[in-house]
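Lab meeting notes turned into a lecture example. A postdoc, R.K., suggested we walk through two folding results consecutively so the class can see how the record format repeats. The first protein's sequence and structure tokens come next.
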Amino acid sequence: MVVTGADGFAGRVLVSALKEEGHEVSGWVRNPPNKPIAGVKYRRVDIRDKGACTNSMEDIQPHWVFHLAAMTHVLDCQNNPKQCFETNVSGTANVFGAMPVEARGLFSSSCHVYGRPKSLAICEDHPIAPVGVYAESKALGEGAVADCGKKVVIARAFHHTGLGQPERFVLSDWAQQIRQGAAQIHVGDLSLCRDFCDVRDIVRGYMVLLGSGNPGEAYNLASGEALSLETLFGMLRGHQHCEPLAQAERMRDGDVSLLCGDPSKAEALGWRRHHDLSKTLAEMAGR
């Protein structure tokens, strides 16, 4: 099977889970990983290169394709829209266009395609109204999936975190500051509410959806509970003596204030969350 983005945050967790189950994994990466996972056959493939995708798929002939490679940092996407659309839209078309007809694929989309919720918790039939370049690129990526004519399931993952997440992302950023013993933790808008899961549960969801989901359909992977960033900050901090310090440069205009997903459709396929978020955050903070 193929995993694109195999050296990314979720990609590494997914590849490890697949190897634990005895699968042979071809991990597509743009650059050789600094810490390769034993047993993974890495292959350098730039998904923006249609020919490279075609040649690699022909060599491997996978039965399953997990497409996780993407630009995922919202600010990077906003500052580099051309690169974002080339990667998240054209790259998606290239991957699934090259996938063998008999194979099954999974596209890692995002809760951000929903935009500002009209109802909560958000179900899969909620209107698509993306806000910002990243969200737009994921919505267009879903369109590329629909156009490819292959058996591809769409996973709309809500926010996820865990050990190994790059420190540019909010909870990992705070966790790093806490581990360093900072008395003041630099934060943005703590009033925002987000639906977070442990990344290990999200990648398990990818595996369930690719195995049992209906091609062409979207499935939320979410906890079903939205927590304020203030609450999440408190869970990370625990009993450590530190206080949040809001910084203007960490605020983003136009941020959706609340996101909360309904996971019942994925749960009907047997997906369950097994990791307590409070324990995940404690691990990240070094407790």
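The second example is placed directly after the first for contrast:
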Amino acid sequence: EHRVDTVLYIEGESNHSFRILRAIKNRFGSTNEIGVFEMKDSGMAEVFNPSEFFLAERAQPSSGSVVMPTLEGSRPILIELQALVVPTHFGIPRRTAEGLDANRVSLLVAVMGKRLGIHLYDHDIFLNIAGGIRVDEPAADLGMIAAIASNFKDRLIDPEMVVFGEVGLGGEVRGVSQSEVRAKEAMRLGFKKCVLPKQNQEKMKGIQGIELTGVRTIQEAMKVLF
């Protein structure tokens, strides 16, 4: 691989129709752009609007559902994160995450117990990203907490709201990269509200068309969401 300028990877789950074409550049800088394609009978067809593609089958608003703007390379994509929290019938509660880091989920559940008083030691937790895409960035932390809390409390999150932000062990909400790009993608698809780190919101006061609510802690986030 080090003898060529670029290596192209086609990523995707076998039971989903979409594929991501990713370029890994080994010389003189990085290539962050990706291509999103859909597998059809005639071959791979480009998906010109990935956000609409991943939200196309979003059902009626339900508890445990939240929309997050994530980044694939340099491209913002809106995805739906779903959570299901149910009492466990076994000695050890399950933590199942499709498209997310299960260890990160366990860490955030511990933070919720300590900082929010939401104790889930006797509940199974299932998280899923609709469409089969995988998210590895810490900006998904606040969305995961929001989805879990929503289903546990059985309370809806505003369907016109998007959520993103990194969460620390102290319950603080930390800033993330490319926040303006994420908010503009949400606004383009008709979302009216955005909950994001206060640090990012203070730098984005010039954006019009979407209500930006900055939060410093997950306690503040819960007050805004519910």
